[in-house]
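Ticket reopened. Same input as before:
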Amino acid sequence: MQAERPWADLRINSERLNNRIHQLARIGALEGGGVCRLALSDEDRKARDLVCHWMKQLGLTVSIDRIGNVTGLRKGKTDSPPVMTGSHIDTVATGGPYDGNLGVLAGLEVIETLNEAGIETIHPLAVGYFTNEEGARFAPDMMGSGVHQGALDLDQMLAVRGIDGKTVGQELERIGYAGEQPVGQFYARRYIELHIEQGPVLEQRDIQIGAVTGVQGISWTEYSIRGISNHAGTTPMELRHDAGYVAAQIVVEARRLARDMGQGQVATVGQVEMIPNLVNVIAREARLTVDLRNMDEQRLQLAEKRLGRFIDEIATAEQVEISQRSLARFQPVHFDPAMIELVDSTAARLGLSCLKMPSGAGHDAQMFAPNCPTSMIFVPSQGGISHNIHEFTATHQIAAGANVLLQTLLHCATQEPD
Ligand code: GLV
Ligand code: MN
Ligand code: MN
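Engineering reply: fixed in the latest deploy. New output:
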């Protein structure tokens, strides 16, 4: 057994990984902790530069593709497609140091560990960071990995306008990450991503590792409501066409439908804007977003239909116009059973407890899943908190996940060609 895996006792350097996590978290650091590094912002550029610098220091061949994804390649004994890991380094505006960043930096730590040990793998290894995984500035989320794997159209994505009116293409040019590498043709031999769980399950069950079975489907829709502005004191209630009231009704319905449907259905209204947003003026316009997710595509479609019916009814009742725009729509993804088993058995071999579990959050890995055997490794999130400046995972928990990543990558990269 040991002879088959001469690297079985190899472990990552936890302090070195931790140092990189904290160095990267200083770019876009928020007061009171946390990070704001929206995709393609100046902070994102600085973080990209630093990670590129680390990739080059580690001897990786760095390439940048047309949507700004960055890949660092470590040669293998063969020229076969690489075994790939990675994630993202953009954050939501109220992000933490680990979401995405952990997967990229743990990938670099694996490379440095192999370099130090003088290990040459059969297949090349690649570490990537993908543009705009969060979707917080530009929708949809998982944009870079989606284009990379051919699920999203490059030109359409370059034309996407963000919350500040700038397009992805303009901002890529501005920060110097509009690369030349073609997209949509990159074939990875395997893809495996380390990520914090961003939910409470592992911590509550006192389990060290999650072997991720899949990712739930995501449906993001923006609703724009057009009513009539009028005086808050003089307009009788039955004569109002109140965009603010309709927005509020949609917020309540989103919660109600998720509670009624159960079976893992979740619904979130994360953004609401009112115009003119004044104390004594009935809102003439409102804009809001609804995020619906479910592991079951049929259930997700049911949630979409139910919300759609409600929107029609409330528009008629209040006599307002409601238009809608899909911001993101991804079907649920099921990861490769053999890769899930590999994560599970690797964790067991390292003496770590492991739970097979689906992901509630979207991830770059889901874009690879249709094209190559894919899975993910989760480590616990303290208090189940993420997309929050208090996001935290302890150093020993990170080390456990990074060692599972090291050993799974080594397993995949030292197998003879299929
Ligand atoms: C991405 O982080 C998402 O799940 O919204
Ligand atoms: Mn993430
Ligand atoms: Mn995130």
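The mean pLDDT is 97. Residues 92, 99, 134, 387 surround manganese (II) ion (ligand 3) (CB under 6 Å). Please confirm and we'll close it.
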